[in-house]
Design a protein that fits this description.
9 strands; four-stranded antiparallel beta sheet; mainly beta; 148 residues; three-stranded antiparallel beta sheet
C-alpha cells in the first residue's frame, strides 16, 4: 500500500448553533492556526484477585477539539471565532472541519461540542499577533465520513 500524507493547506472550518447551520455559517479557517480532534481514552481498574493482578479495561473514548486561532475581536461578531466562542461559552454548538477542500477525495469531521471562550490579550510591543487556544469537549463521538 502506498504512503498517504494529508496536507492541510486548504481546510475549511465552520461552527454553528445547529448542524443545519453549518451549511451557511461563515468560514473560520483563515483565523484558525490549528484544529485537532483529540481522543481522551477512558479506563476502569479491575481489581486484582488471587489468580491475577489488577488490570484496566477500556471504556468508550471521550473526544475534544483543541483549537488555536488568531484573535479576531475587531471583526463583526457574526464573522468572528473569538465572538462566537465568547457568546456561546459553555453552550453546545456544531463544528465541521474538512481537511483540504482541493483534494479529489475528501473526508469531514462533524460533531457537537461545548464551546469554550478563547483569551483576550497579547504580548505588548513585539509586533506578534494576538493568538489564543481553547479546548472544546465533545458531547459524543463526532462523525468522520467521506464528503459526497
Amino acid at each position: 500500500m502506498p504512503r498517504e500524507a494529508m496536507i492541510w493547506n486548504n481546510p475549511t472550518v465552520t461552527a454553528a448553533l445547529t448542524e443545519e447551520g453549518l451549511d451557511t455559517a461563515p468560514a473560520l479557517e483563515c483565523q484558525i492556526t490549528s484544529a485537532m480532534l483529540t481522543p481522551q481514552p477512558q479506563f476502569n481498574t479491575i481489581p486484582s484477585t488471587g489468580c491475577a493482578g489488577a488490570t484496566q479495561s477500556p471504556g468508550l473514548t471521550g473526544w475534544q477539539v483543541d483549537l488555536a486561532w488568531l484573535q479576531d475581536w475587531v471583526k463583526a461578531p457574526a464573522d468572528s471565532l473569538s465572538w462566537f466562542a465568547w457568546t456561546n461559552d459553555g453552550a453546545p454548538v456544531w463544528l465541521r472541519i474538512v481537511p483540504d477542500d482541493t483534494a479529489a477525495s475528501q473526508v469531514a469531521m462533524v460533531g457537537q461540542f461545548y464551546a469554550v471562550a478563547g483569551g483576550f490579550g497579547a504580548t505588548f510591543g513585539d509586533g506578534s499577533a494576538a493568538a489564543t487556544t481553547a479546548t472544546w469537549p465533545a458531547l459524543a463521538k463526532p462523525d468522520i465520513a467521506a464528503v459526497v
